[in-house]
Amino acid sequence: MKLHTIQALRAVAALLVLVYHTRAIEMDAIARKGLNEAPMLSTFVQNGFSGVDFFFVISGFIMVYVTGKVQPRLATAGAFLFARAARIYPLWWLFAAIMTAYFFLAYGGVPFGAETLEDGSRMMRENSALHLIYSYALLPQLTVPIHGVGWTLVHEMHFYIGFALLILLPRRFLPLGLAGWAAIILLGTLTGLQQPTATDYISLLLHPLSLEFLGGCGAALLICSGRRFKPMTVLVVGLIAFVAALYLQPYPTDFTLGWGRVLFFGIPSILIVYGAAALEAEDRVRVPRSFVVLGDWSYALYLGHTLVLSGLRRIFDALAARLQGTFLEDVFTIGAPGILDNLLFYIVGAVGSIVFAGLVFRLFEKPAMTLTGRLRRDLFEDTNAQLKPAPIKAAIW
User: Fold this and answer.
1) Which of 268, 262, 282, 356 is nearest to 312 (CA)?
2) Are 210 and 188 in contact (CB under 8 A)?
3) What is each CA distance from 381 to 86, 169, 342, 374, 385, in whole angstroms?
4) How many angstroms separate the CA atoms of 80 and 160, rounded?
5) Model confidence at 375: pLDDT above 80
6) Nearest to 52 by CA among 356, 303, 220, 365
7) C-alpha–C-alpha distance, residues 185 and 199, integer Å
8) How far apart are CA 318 and CA 113, in angstroms?
9) Which percentage of the chain shows pLDDT scores above 90?
């Protein structure tokens, strides 16, 4: 059974991040030109990074859902981990390679952490190479990966490895394992070891964002076991809380990068995912096919939209310069008086990002999934069937 609501929520999460970065690029373009026009969208969109919190909750939900029939065996855990890595790495490597090529062509090398500037050029070259290795492997490091949005994938791979270890437990002990994982995170905060960003293995292990993943796991356990309590009410409460947080949460600080995100966006996301999935399990909701398709494209949309938006901004600047002195100059000058330039940038940016994501999905991501799926079946023939979801039980609440 494919939960269409979950795919639709993946689409919503990707669109939130898309609009968030569109606004950020719009603000940067305005600042670079020395203009003072306010961005077209304000408070509501500046917290659009919360789409990432949605993604984390959904990831946790999917992990529990797709492992409903697993047996506590090492081969099963290996098959699960291979499947998740095969889903993440191929498309990530494509975009990481694009960004690597861009930095080498534009700047003669890749960026590296500011802490390396105190060393000589030899050390900078070594650290740049190490930065690439850590980026492609999605390992924690002091700076963001070569493609900035990849920091979330570092958390994702951490989730997958941790959950693969929990697969080694009998299924009835999974809730206890998840609770123990949450307790470790809470203990890290109480002992002062938790950091705003995950720059090493300890801070990654103890980062509060893992609680969003664990919350998604908990929601799936409830749904699959039939424990569904007033899903429509839960969904509405989650939506109200999420929208309120979009308006009211302060701009990111050390607190909001960690626990603030969990409280303001993680908990509402858990409620939304639980309510929406429970409604579908009870056949009380229908999702437009367009959102399901966009959900399928969401990973490509997440990784590709910043490239499209950055390229579009340069195209707008070039057109504005070429059309200087005509009435069309202001149309392509982001930050010019009026709303037309801003509206055009948002619309073209959104459409272009979605079309690009669809092409990447069909031409690269889907063939890669087919290829890695065959390889997984060859490598883990005996455990492949155990990675299929278990039937969702009838409601008992």
Assistant:
1) 356
2) no
3) 16, 21, 53, 10, 8
4) 8
5) yes
6) 303
7) 16
8) 31
9) 57
Asked if residues 340 and 330 have their Cβ atoms less than 8 Å apart, the reply is yes
Q: Which of 221-225, 270-274, 302-306 has the lowest mean pLDDT?
A: 221-225
Look at residues 316, 321, 322, 324 and name the one whose alpha carbon lies nearest to residue 340: 316
Distance CA 262, CA 198 (A): 15
- 269: nearest Cα among 3, 19, 6: 6
The Cα 366–Cα 371 span in angstroms is: 9
Q: Between these two residues, 42 and 357, which has the higher pLDDT value?
A: 357
Q: Which amino acid is at 120?
A: G
* Per-chain mean pLDDT for the chain: 88
Range picked from 42-51, 212-221, 378-387 for highest mean pLDDT: 212-221
Cα-Cα end-to-end distance for the chain: 22
Q: Which two tokens stand for residue 375?
A: 């390889």
pLDDT in tens, 238-256: 999 999 988 877 666 666 6
Say how many residues make up the chain. 397
Q: Which two tokens mark 59?
A: 């990831």
- Residue 394 carries which DSSP code? P
Q: Which residues contact 92 (CB under 8 A, 6 or more apart)?
A: 136, 138, 147, 150, 153, 303
- In the predicted model, is pLDDT for residue 131 greater than 60? yes
pTM, to two decimals? 0.91
Query: And the tokens for 166?
Result: 């929990």
Question: Residue range 358-376: average pLDDT?
Answer: 95
Q: How many helices (H) and strands (E) are present in the chain, helices listed first?
A: 16, 0
- Cβ neighbours, 10 Å, residue 26: 25
The encoded tokens of residue 252 equal 């990111």
**Which run of H or of E encompasses 92?**
helix 74-107
